[in-house]
DNA sequence: CGACTTTGACCTGCGC
DNA sequence: GCGCAGGTCAAAGTCG
């Protein structure tokens, strides 16, 4: 485990989790996910790094105007020039894992896959299948380091996990499992 | 048969 | 205006 980065949305700092990756870091991340009170936007730049942007208009807002109305949190007002967008809650982190999809306790339905420029791996798009929950996530493998998977969550779950009460310990368990196997 | 995945088409924003 | 890139839709296929 020598190249694991975890990015916490509560500040602009990037936490490098290796080799000093601790359970404290995981607890920190869990806190962020469970509290759902962070409004920073995150941008995966160069499909290798993830940065934060405090600008309300970021690359992540581009596609929202095409939504079919179910996810209107950040949808710009088509008719009326309401340019101020509500900041969406985004959480992204990189994991070093051989599996693309971490089992975070929620059920996801894949709704798209795209080849991304300058990346040899496709980006997959998932929605939470829980009724009324509009959380999405994107999963993409790092083209420069195939062992790294970048997962970006968008929105907040309106329901508890289906399987786990402490989903991120489970994630960590998977990360640990796969990284130690390297 | 319902839930999920696949994949081509479509839409939008942006840069030139 | 045009083309590109990213994001989403939705029909068809697959699976349990």
Automatic annotation (TrEMBL):
GO terms for molecular function: DNA-binding transcription factor activity; sequence-specific DNA binding. Residues 97-162 form the WRKY domain. Keywords: DNA-binding, Nucleus, Transcription, Transcription regulation. Residues 72-85 have a biased composition (Basic and acidic residues). Its main location: nucleus. Pfam families: WRKY. Residues 54-85 are annotated as: Disordered. It is found in: Nucleus. InterPro entries: WRKY_dom, WRKY_dom_sf, WRKY_plant. One of its GO terms (cellular component) is nucleus. PANTHER family: WRKY TRANSCRIPTION FACTOR 23, WRKY TRANSCRIPTION FACTOR PROTEIN 1-RELATED. This is WRKY domain-containing protein.
């Amino acid at each position: 485990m020598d190249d694991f980065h975890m990015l916490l949305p509560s500040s602009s700092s990037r936490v490098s989790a290796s080799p000093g990756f601790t359970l404290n870091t995981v607890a920190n991340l869990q806190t962020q996910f469970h509290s759902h009170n962070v409004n920073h936007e995150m941008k995966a730049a160069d499909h290798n790094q993830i940065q934060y942007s405090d600008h309300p208009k970021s690359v992540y807002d581009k596609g929202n105007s095409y939504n079919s109305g179910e996810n209107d949190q950040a949808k710009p007002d088509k008719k009326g020039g309401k340019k101020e967008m509500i900041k969406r809650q985004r959480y992204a982190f990189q994991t070093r894992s051989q599996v693309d999809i971490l089992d975070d306790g929620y059920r996801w339905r894949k709704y798209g896959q795209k080849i991304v420029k300058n990346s040899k791996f496709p980006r997959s798009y998932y929605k939470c299948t829980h009724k009324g929950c509009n959380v999405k996530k994107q999963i993409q493998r790092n083209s420069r380091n195939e062992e790294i998977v970048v997962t970006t969550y968008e929105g907040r779950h309106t329901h508890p996990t289906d399987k786990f009460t402490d989903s991120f310990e489970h994630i960590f368990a998977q990360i640990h499992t796969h990284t130690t196997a390297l």
